[in-house]
Every structure is written in C-alpha cells, then in structure tokens.
Amino acid sequence: MSLHAIVLTLNEEKHLERCLRSIAAACDSILVVDSGSSDRTVEIAGRFGATVLVNPFVNHATQLNFAIASLRGRGGWLLRIDADEVLLDAPDAVRAALARMPDDVDGLLVRRRLHFMNRPMRWGGMDPIWQLRIWREGRGICEQRWMDEHVIVEGRVAKSPLRIDDINLNSLGWWTEKHNWYAAREAIDILAHRHGVFAIQSVSRSSGLDQVVLKRALKNNLYLKLGGGARALLYFFYRYVFRLGFLDGREGWYFHVLQGFWYRTLVDAKIIEIETFAARNGVPLADAIRACTGLDPRPADAAIKCEQFDDCAQRA
C-alpha cells in the first residue's frame, strides 16, 4: 500500500531536510506545497526527489486542500506532516501499521508531541495529543477554517502506533510573532461562530476525532461563555495546576504562560478590537476584520466547493 506525504512550506530551510529525511524511506512520493519561499526550501525539497508546487497562501486549510486535489487518483494513503516535525517510526513500522488497518478504516490518528525551548511538553494536557495525520486518498478533505483545521474522512478513524515530534528550531521571538499571526485567525473563527456571518466547517462527533470534538464543545459551550478577562487566566490555571503543567519545569512555566494565557488573552483582545471597530464605524463585521487584521474572512479562493467535501460532511 503506497504512502504519499504532504508538506506545506514557507522559508523552511532550517527544518525541511530533517523532516524529509525522517519520511523519505517510508513514502512513495513527497509533495511540497510552497507559499513562495525566498530561501533554500525548494532546493532542499528537490534533493529528496519531492514534487514542489507553488500556491498562494490563504490559510492552512486551503493550502492542504490544494495538495489533496493535486494528489487525486494516486491511491494508497496520504500523510500530512509539517516541515518542523519529525516522523519517529522506522519505514518498516510505518508500512506494517498501514498494512494492519481494516478496509473500513479511512483515517489514522498519530501521537504528536510538542517541544518548547528544547524540552518535550509531557504535562498540562499536552501529551498525548492525537491528530488525524494519515488518511486514505480520495476519502478525506480538510475542513475550511482559519485555525485548528482537521481532515474529515468518510469512514472509521483508528489510533495508530505512529509518532510525530514537533521540534521547532526558531527563536522565541519568531514563536511570539507566529502566535500573533495565529491569534488574528482564531479571532476570525470565534467571530464566525458567535455571529454566524460567514461559514466555517467543522468535524462532527461521528467523524472519529473525539478529542477534537470534545475540545471544541468545551470551548464553544463553556470557555467562550466566560468573561474575556477571566477565561484565559482560568484556562492557564487548568493547564498549569490541574493538568500538572508545572511538572515540565521552567520550560513548562514559560510555555503555559505564553501559549495558555498570553495567546488566549491576545485572541480575546483582537475579538474586542474587531467588534469595537465595527460598532464605532457602523461597518459589517467582515469589513472590520479586514481593517484590523488585513485578512479577508471570505476570500473567493478559500471557499472550497468540493463534492468530495460534501460527501464527507454528509457521512460524518
């Protein structure tokens, strides 16, 4: 059974060789979808025999669906892996895991472990994180969201023994800039859910992504009901104290303060900024989002119209 990898890139020369080296022997082909890198990313991909396609970036969901469409008809399985991630399992173990899957299984959950400041985050609800990273070609598509997008598959989802480590080598300054970038996109998703002014797609309980469904249900029905000033602090307390995040030492403290408190506070501040701009200027929410973030929440090429997605959504 063949395996085809998808890697989304933008200026990933620092990480890409390590990533491709970890998957090259296990994969029959590698597709790199690049957003216009100005460094050696494309050169490195070529050294590993990867096919490189350049596609303008809207969001990760649109980019991933472009990759899925580009691989249509290949058969076998598709693997999504980020450039700063490493597949830990040997090629024989990967092939054996795929060969054991029953015919009704269309998606595989992979255990992902995040590293922060050179330390794996094992506590605070960060391990295990199960993500659907492998699915049968032609049986899955990515939900259209600005943040926290997941692949939806038609059939059953099963856990696999496969493991991915996320080990980003960039500076803390880069990390904070990236999360500022993420915060604007998450604010759009929250506003879309709150006001229903533009559609986002979501996995359903029958999709097999129980961890994702539970987290989103708690976020939409509990977390977002709390006051903006308190919920980030309560979320930090939950992760750092109740889920024992403090056991990850100094690095765990900085991670949960930054990712669990600062980031969530930044998202809330951006929501307030956008809603206040819309109210004060008497403009639609979409116009306020464009003015405050520079993002178009309804770009024409982000509205994926795909019969494959419609089929998956109906079955999910």
UniProtKB/TrEMBL annotation:
UniProt KW keywords: Transferase
Signal peptide span: none
Record's keyword annotation contains Transferase: yes
Name by which UniProt lists this protein: Glycosyl transferase
Family: Belongs to the glycosyltransferase 2 family. WaaE/KdtX subfamily.
One Gene Ontology molecular-function label: transferase activity
CDD domains named in the record: Beta4Glucosyltransferase
Alphabetical list of InterPro entries matching this protein: Glyco_trans_2-like, Nucleotide-diphossugar_trans
Sequence ranges assigned to domain Glycosyltransferase 2-like in this UniProt record: 6-136
Superkingdom of the organism of origin: Bacteria
Transferase is among the record's keywords: yes
Native species: Blastochloris tepida
Pfam families on file: Glycos_transf_2
